[in-house]
Amino acid sequence: MAAPVPTKKNGLVLKTRRLKLKHTWTTVMSSSDYRDTFYVEFTNGGVTGIGEGAPIIRYKESAETCTAALEAIRPWLESADPWAFAKFMQGAFQKIEGNWAGKAALDIALLDWVGKKLNIPLWRHFGLDRNDAPVTTFSIGIDKAEVVRQKVLEAEAFPVLKVKVGLANDEEMIASVRAATKKPLRVDANEGFKSKEEAVEKINWLEKQGVEFIEQPLPAANLEDMNWIRKRVHMPIIADEACLHPSDIPKLAPHFDGVNIKIDKCGGLLEGWRMIQLARSLNLKVMLGCMVSSSVAVTAAAQLSPLVDYADLDGFLLISNDPYDGVKVEKGKLVLPTGPGLGLKARPA
Questions:
Q1: What positions does UniProt annotate as the active site of this protein (predicted)?
Q2: Fewest CB within a 10 Å sphere: which of 43, 185, 202, 327?
C-alpha cells in the first residue's frame, strides 16, 4: 500500500519581505531604496493562499505592527471558516484596529485560497472578463534630470507614463520627461502644492505639457479649495490620499472628478470592490493604484482592474527581487493570469 501523501498543516505563516528598488524612489513624502511588505500564507485543507500588504508609515503601520495585530488573534484566525470569507473578514475588521495593510494581506490570502479550492482565477470569481483589463501607467519618481530620462527610456513599452510632482523642481521633471518622449502623461502631486493659487497655476501649465489628469494637488483634509480649483482648470482631478475607505467616497464626490483606490489602504479586495461600486454610483471616474510591492499585491489588485477606467499597477516593476510571477504587462496592457486564485508562480530562490 502506498504511503499517505502528507498535507500542509493548517494555520498561518506571517512574513516580512524586504523588496529592493531598481532606482531610489522619491515622492513629496519620502525617499527610499527598499520597502518592507507584509505577507500572509493561509493554509487549510492542504491548500495555501498567499497575500501581501504594503504598510504605510503615515497611518502608523509597519510589517511589525501588522504581524503583532494578526498574532494577537491567531487562534481565532486559524479556527474561522475560510469558505465564509466575507464573514471572516468582517470579524477581522472588528478585531484588528488600523493595520490596513495587514488586513489586506489576510483578505488576499483568503481569496487566493478560495480561488484555488474552486480551481478558478479570482477575476472569474468576481464575474469579470480579463480582456477588459486596462493599460497601466509606469511611474517616474522625482529625481535628477539625467536619471529621469533614463527611467523614461526603461519605460519604452508603456504608452502612458505617470510622473511624480509636487516639489520645487516640477518644471525640470516634466522637461526631462518631455526631452525623452511625447507620450501622454498623468501626474501625482501627493498633496505637494502649497496653495490653491499655486495649484491652478501648475495644473494649467501641466495641461499644456500633455498631461491628462492630476492626482491630489492639495492636502487630503483640504476639500473646500478643490471646488475653487476645479472652476479654474480643465484637467480632471483625482483624489488619492483623501481616498482611503468606502466611507470617504460620498464626501469626495462633490469635490473631485474621480478616486484612486488602493487595496493596501482600504484593507483588501472585498473593500476595494465596495469602493469601486460606490464610486460608480456617484458618477466618479475610478483609478486602481498600488504601493511599491511584489507581484502578490499587484496581481491581487489587478483582479479588479476590468472594472476601472485607469490603472497604475506597476509597483512590482519597480523592484529587483520579486519572489513571484503573476500579472504581466504587454505594451502597457495588464494581462491577468489564468491560473486558480491569484495565479501566482513562485520564482526560484
A1: 164 (proton acceptor), 262 (proton acceptor)
A2: 43
3-state secondary structure of 198: helix
Q: Which domain holds residue 162?
A: 129-346
Judge whether 1 lies within some domain. Answer: no
Active site residue 116: no
The per-residue pLDDT for range 295-345, each reduced to its tens digit, is 999 999 999 999 999 999 999 999 999 999 999 999 999 999 999 999 999
Which residue positions form the known binding site for Mg(2+)?
188, 215, 240
Strand 185-188 relative to strand 161-164, pairing: parallel
Residues 191, 219: contact at Cβ < 8 Å? yes
Alpha-carbon distances of 316 from 46, 56, 207, 321, rounded to whole Å: 28, 17, 29, 9
Of the residues 103, 196, 262, 265, only one is catalytic, namely 262
0.90 exceeded by pTM: yes
4 in a structural domain: no
164 as an active site residue: the answer is yes
Q: Which is the catalytic residue, given 103, 116, 164, 183?
A: 164
Which grid coordinates belong to 337? 493570469
* 108 lies in the same domain as 207: no
